[in-house]
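User: I'm curious what two different proteins look like when written out as structure tokens. Can you demonstrate?

Assistant: Sure. I'll show them one after the other, since each token string lines up with its own sequence. Here's the first protein:
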Amino acid sequence: MNRRESLKLLAGAASAALLPAGRASAAAAPVRITLPSPGSAGSVWQPLVSRLGIAEALGLNLEWIVADPGKMQTQLTAGALDVGVYGSVGLSTIVNKGSDIVLFGPALDNNTRWVVRGDSPYKTPRDLAGKTVASTAETSETYQQAKIAASLAGLDFNDLKIVFGSPLANLALFERGDVEAILTLEPTATRLVARGARDLARVADEWERGTGLKGAPILVGLAASRTWLDANRETASKVSKLFVKVNSAIRESPRLLVDVARDIGIKPDETEALALLPGRARDSYATAWDDEVFKVIDKQIEVAVKLGLLKQAPAGKIYVKV
């Protein structure tokens, strides 16, 4: 998306603001879509989609629903949620058990970082062997993709002492000095660096060195049951376009993130974090859904099988184009 297209989106938002609430999408059936938790990278989507008027322009009526990641499969299968997000390893796990959920569009690329204190002696993640590292749940895509990339860089996670917890709990452990490092996503990584911590490594860089595949790998994509997709192909295509548009707007004008910083947990007085955020977080927002992305997904699954994260690769592809 170029600057002219970004300005068109902003102009569209201004026009939408002049319409009676809901008029642009009143005729469309609501699409129940996952509402990422406050403080996460995806929590900017709802306010920016609204501000830029993207849903109205596409004729979509979005109903943002707080979804429990642990129950997303049940919610999608039961129809309580139409669109969620999944990563390649997590989705492959449930597909191997018979789920019909499939990826159909871009959401977030992997911007996970290994963060250590500013005065720590560590130079690479391999230097953390025998040390305690905080991470999100063992079943989370953040952890599993970090494990995959680390293995390609020669680090066995069995050599680490991993403490699993929520992002906020892990943040507290790190700031108290109870762990030597933390595996975390944006914007938490930026907030820590603004307070004096430093990046030790990016999972995306480890992945690129290990595979030769350029660019940050997918972290999570848009997901829905095949049943819903088959019945709502046109709507699914519009939802995918919506995410391409909002993520492209962020990449083209990353200071949009500062405008909605409260939605990702950054307070107005965190001036250093606000200054760092546009440059550090923009690459989290995925815009591609093509053969190159599919090649990455296939590679993630292949390595996950070798590491034992998956017993086997799914029989068919876990992604489609709409």
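Here's a second, unrelated protein for contrast:
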Amino acid sequence: MSDPTRHADCDSPTSLENPGAISWYAQGLRFACTRCGACCTGEPGHVWVDGEEIARLATFLGMSVEEFGRRHLRALASGYSLKERPNGDCEFWDRQRGCTVYAARPDQCRTWPFWPEHVRTAQDWAEVTEVCPGAGRPDGRWYSREWIDAATLLTASRWSGQGAPADNLVARAELPASTHEVCGPDAVVNPKDPTP
């Protein structure tokens, strides 16, 4: 018996992977953030930020870019990532209040759960709905295929280093040396380096 919840093209690639193809989510998808924190807590990872996002977060928190960098960023070979707590939780996540920088959150957070690996197939999306109570909610906001494609393109280009031109990153000189804890004080942050 066929599964009525699966689209006929459930294993078709996303539009991002095959431009011009009809993606399995051609009719769009629904999502409503429940502020459960499932995407903000747990296993360690990276929340990549560029200069514009760093400035937005610093302004939101009422601090200089330098102070924000010193307190909240770590430099990696591929760019800057927000620091995490030792348990892997985002340091901006509060169990009572939710995301404390929600209005200024990075694009990576804004595009959740529409990341390339989550919408590649209907099965991938189904797996996301098992861990994210807001993904696929019938009462959630409807996102068009075009919006989803743009979100996946943004995140895919950011994570591969292709979408963060050097002039869009905060200049190394603007950040205190302590933000280079992972790479060392002489590290050169190369936005085109595909290493995560």
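A detail about the second structure: The chain has one domain: 35-180.
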